TrEMBL record:
Protein name: (Mediterranean fruit fly) hypothetical protein
Coiled-coil regions listed in the entry: none
GO cellular component: extracellular region
Protein location: Secreted
Length: 408
C-alpha cells in the first residue's frame, strides 16, 4: 500500500517509511489547512481511514506535571563559542532525546512553530541543506534523523534547531557577541511516537567579560562556579599619598586570595598582558606580593578553576588588594591555618591553632554546628568565607559561638 499526503503543493510520500503491519501514521507538526490523502492499494479490498488532529500520545499524564530542568551555559567570547548544558528529563529519562533551539528573537515554546519558522527562513537561503519537496519523509524527520554533532555552527539571524540525541550538552560555534540568545530545550519521547514537549528555557547575554573593579583594602566576592569558570578583577594603583605609618610598604602591591569553598583555583596577575604573578592549585587563603609598582598602573587578576572537575564544584572566590602591605580591615593570617584536635573526652573536645602574626588585637571566634551523622548537611565543608552574622546564628544546625581576643 502506498500512501501520499499533499498540503499546499508539498508532496510527502510515506510508503518508504511504512512497515508491512503498520496501521497508524503520525505526521508531526502538521500545520493548519486542508490535507489530501491518496491511498494506492496493491490488491482489491476495503479500507477505512481516520484522521485526528492531535498526537496519539497527547493525553500522556506526565505532560501536565511540573518539570524543573535547569540550563547552564559557558560563554567563550574570544572563540565565538558557547557551551550549553541541561539536566536530563525526569520523565522516562531513558527514552527521551533532546532538541535545542537557539535564536536571537524570542522564546520558542512550541516545537512545531519553531520548525515552520526554521524552514521558512531556510527557504530563502542558499546551501542551507534544507530538504526539497522530494524528501522521503516529513520535515521534522529530516531534523530528528540528523546525527548529533559535538559542535554545531549556528546562524544568529535565524532559528537554529539542533537535536542532540540522548546527550545533554552542545557546543555552539559562530556565536556573535553583544547579543541576547534565547535557548529552549525540547524532549522527544522515542517510545511514545516521538511525542515532543518543552523542557526548559534560558536567556543568555553573550557579552565580553568586564573586569570587576577592586577597591583598595576591601574584600570583594565573585562567583566562579559552574560553567562560567573565568572571572577577572581589575585594580588601578591610586595616586594618593601614603600614610606615614605605611610608608615603609610603599611601591608594592599585596593580594589576598580566598577560595571560599576550598576548591583549587589558579590565578594570573597581568600588567599590559605581561604576567607579573602566577599561582596554581590555591585551595586556602593565600598572599601574593608584587614589588615595584607605580601609581596609575592597572593590574588584571584572572581566576580559573585548576581543572574541569574543580570547575563543576567551585563556588566563590574572595580577593582583596592593598598598596600598603597591611590590610587595615583584615587580620594577618598565619602561615599554617590548620586547626588541631588536642584531645577528646566524652562530650569535651580541645582544639588549638596557630596565632596571627598581626601586632593588632585580634579576635578569634569558634562556631559550633551540631551536624547529623547520617545526613551530612551543606554546611559540612570548609568555607573560608563564613561570616558571623544572622545567616550563621540563625542556621537550624547552629549550636554555639564563642569569641576571645588576644593581643601581642
Amino acid at each position: 500500500m502506498e500512501k501520499i499526503w499533499t498540503y499546499r503543493h508539498l508532496r510527502l510520500n510515506l510508503s518508504r517509511s511504512l512497515k508491512s503491519d503498520q496501521r497508524t501514521v503520525v505526521l508531526p507538526c502538521a500545520l493548519r489547512g486542508q490535507y489530501d490523502i491518496f491511498v494506492q492499494a496493491r490488491q482489491r479490498g476495503s479500507i477505512k481511514i481516520e484522521a485526528h488532529a492531535a498526537h496519539p500520545q497527547s493525553s500522556w499524564p506526565l505532560l501536565n506535571r511540573t518539570h524543573h530542568i535547569r540550563i547552564r551555559t559557558q560563554n567563550l567570547v574570544r572563540k565565538r563559542q558557547m557551551i550549553v548544558k541541561w539536566d536530563k528529563s525526569k520523565f522516562d529519562f531513558h527514552a527521551v532525546h533532546y532538541c535545542l533551539i537557539v535564536n536571537t528573537h524570542q522564546r520558542q515554546l512550541n516545537f512545531c512553530n519553531a520548525v515552520d519558522d526554521y524552514f521558512a527562513s531556510a527557504a530563502g537561503r542558499v546551501n542551507v541543506g534544507a530538504p526539497g519537496s522530494c524528501y522521503p519523509g516529513s520535515l521534522v524527520d529530516y531534523i530528528w534523523l540528523k546525527p548529533p554533532e559535538r559542535a554545531k555552527k549556528i546562524d544568529p539571524r535565524i532559528i537554529n534547531i539542533i537535536c542532540t540525541g540522548a546527550h545533554t550538552q552542545q557546543l555552539l560555534r559562530g556565536v556573535l557577541p553583544n547579543r541576547t540568545y534565547y535557548l529552549d530545550v525540547f524532549g522527544v519521547h522515542t517510545r511514545r511516537q516521538n511525542l515532543t514537549f518543552h523542557i526548559a528555557s534560558a536567556q543568555v547575554e553573550y557579552n565580553r567579560t568586564h573586569p570587576l573593579s577592586l577597591s583598595d583594602d576591601m574584600l570583594s566576592m565573585k562567583k566562579i562556579s559552574g560553567l562560567n569558570g573565568i572571572q577577572v578583577f581589575s585594580f588601578k594603583v591610586p595616586g594618593r599619598k601614603i600614610n606615614s605609618i605605611y610608608r615603609q610598604f610603599h611601591r608594592q602591591l599585596r593580594y589576598l586570595i580566598v577560595p571560599c569553598g576550598g576548591s583549587e583555583i589558579d590565578i594570573k596577575i597581568l600588567l599590559k598582558r605581561q604576567v607579573m604573578g602566577n599561582a596554581t592549585g590555591i585551595y586556602r587563603p593565600t598572599y601574593i606580593r608584587l614589588s615595584e609598582v607605580h601609581k596609575g598602573q592597572r593590574y588584571i587578576a584572572r581566576f580559573t578553576p585548576s581543572n574541569e572537575d574543580e570547575m563543576l564544584r567551585a563556588h566563590k572566590v574572595g580577593l582583596a588588594v592593598t598598596t600598603t602591605g597591611i590590610f587595615q580591615h583584615l587580620p594577618e593570617l598565619p602561615d599554617n591555618i590548620t586547626v588541631f584536635e588536642v584531645s577528646t573526652r566524652c562530650s569535651l573536645a580541645t582544639i588549638a591553632w596557630y596565632s596571627s602574626p598581626d601586632s593588632r588585637t585580634i579576635r578569634y571566634c569558634i562556631i559550633v554546628f551540631n551536624l547529623p551523622q547520617r545526613n551530612r548537611s551543606s554546611i559540612d565543608y570548609t568555607n573560608y568565607c563564613l561570616d558571623f552574622g544572622k545567616r550563621v546564628v540563625q542556621h537550624p544546625l547552629f549550636q554555639s559561638i564563642k569569641c576571645i581576643e588576644r593581643s601581642k
